[in-house]
């Protein structure tokens, strides 16, 4: 019995490989196009940010954070920590990482928020995609790194794709949660005053769910950042690269410095995104 | 404040209300749950709500509810929780689907049946004709007071400048002009409900649905808002359907009251009807706990003219004939005769204010009983009441007051 089971192996892996090969052969154009567009976007943003003198850009970041949060402490922290990154020599890599995070988060939000809204409105749909979301978050990253590598080639793009797969469930889940937990009394009030579906979505559901959705986006940013090193394994530029190199050469100093730069970036992004614009400012519009 | 006021006199005949109603419900059955047909079949066989729920997967919200609300009146739906009052209210703007029957609303001068009209028409009715005030306010917490009040207009697509003008006017009306830019969450409960009222008035809807709007507020604030609502109604003359579980509130606000029990309307009538002629034990139970001073007016407790002794053109106010009032040909009181002496009459207004309580006092019969008692205490003579045409209608002395308070007035009903 045991021998029989062992000798008749189900070729799950082979089938998947054929699938990927099939896609690679017949949908190559589509993947190439995606690859081209994504890498152009990342490269474009990186180049644009690097064209600005680092010190000026740090000033802009600090000023932006101050306007958003009215916190001098945060602005000072941003200036000090980014100057440290410049000092360590990872400014360029940090910008590359930032660009990667920005675009993968943007992709996640663009896909995740609408899917989350749909899922909230159609519980059946959510029941279907929930196991899929669990899968996306639990399956080891390296497993889907290989097919994305085959389909999109080496470089930044498979990094972004893997990052999106890993980070996408967060905005979907939290958007769904936010929209599904809009108080029924608010929905009813809007309905009683004649709201259409779109008015309901944009004037009631989204504003009410906004804090939760923003939490989802912040989480998404953090998850993207945590993928930086793995993305570097398939050739994505950024702060992950020196970490991988340090790992290969057992270079403790380099690994620590690059890691520190990632942490600094993470703290800044978290602090800046954490609290949205205070309620009062939006309400007084 | 007159509780049972002039409307009691102008009770329209049923035939008239058919065409004039602002809101008319005909045999409305509302069913929650899946087995709608089975539930309706059972209800036709006379099954109660409980029996239907045990047998099929459905809960009857209402059974054959009929209701006519005339333009400009406040109709109160009253009952314990679960009696179906809110269910009926929500049918009037289509928030609850009606399984059977019709809900006709006067919209842009035409009768629109909400159970048969299309979605676009339903939306038009909600945008322009029917607005609603909620028990839990239903305000958007992230918006300012102004943006909440303008919500209905915003949904209608009214431009910002126009919206602002209307909103500021309504905020002025409910006394919140200084709070326009505050986030709505910073306001107290009573103020939030004022915002809810302003929002409902802002769309200039003819029909206002109020779902226990004051129940979540503490008693003093509730009383104040009730008075404010009555003041506004005197100016604006909207048609208001008001849900309440408090008979005191219903009697204070309602021109007519529909009492509901288990999804049925068990009595629909004026406050006086409800108090004096409860249709069944359920209604009587509500009425029993009422303070009659808050409900009754003098007209309902007085001894009518027909039961008084007359002597030519004078009417005797006491048994001995020592106090009399002479009336002219059209029955208006002219002069008092006290122990043979002629004296001028004193007149009281609808609140019971009177310049000279030492005389025989003439008051309108809509005078609340409380004010009548106060007058009788200050005056040495029985109070004489006149109807809305100024004709002598009856009198009220200690006996009538005691009977009224005990609510066992052995009076012939007018």
UniProtKB/TrEMBL annotation, chain A:
PROSITE patterns, per database record: ABC_TM1
Major location category of this protein: membrane
Protein keywords: Cell membrane, Membrane, Transmembrane, Transmembrane helix, Transport
BP GO terms, sorted: choline transport; glycine betaine transport
GO MF terms held by the record: amine transmembrane transporter activity; carnitine transmembrane transporter activity
Cellular compartment(s): Cell membrane
CDD domains linked to this entry: TM_PBP2 (cd06261)
Similarity remark: Belongs to the binding-protein-dependent transport system permease family.
Annotated protein name in UniProt: Glycine betaine/proline transport system permease protein
Lineage: Bacteria, Pseudomonadati, Pseudomonadota, Alphaproteobacteria, Hyphomicrobiales
From TrEMBL, chain B:
UniProt-recorded Gene Ontology molecular function terms: ATP binding; ATP hydrolysis activity; choline transmembrane transporter activity
Pfam families associated with the record: ABC_tran
InterPro entries from the UniProt entry: AAA+_ATPase, ABC_osmolyte_uptake_ATP-bind, ABC_transporter-like_ATP-bd, ABC_transporter-like_CS, ABC_trnsptr_Choline_ATP-bd, P-loop_NTPase
Record bears the keyword ATP-binding: yes
Domain ABC transporter: 25-287
Key words of the record: ATP-binding, Nucleotide-binding
GO cellular component, one term: ATP-binding cassette (ABC) transporter complex, substrate-binding subunit-containing
UniProt keyword ATP-binding, yes or no: yes
PANTHER family noted in UniProt: GLYCINE BETAINE/PROLINE BETAINE TRANSPORT SYSTEM ATP-BINDING PROTEIN PROV, GLYCINE BETAINE_PROLINE BETAINE TRANSPORT SYSTEM ATP-BINDING PROTEIN PROV
UniProt cross-references to NCBIfam families, sorted A to Z: ABC_choXWV_ATP
Family statement drawn from the similarity comment of this UniProt entry: Belongs to the ABC transporter superfamily.
Protein name: Glycine betaine/proline transport system ATP-binding protein
Originating species: Methylobacterium pseudosasicola
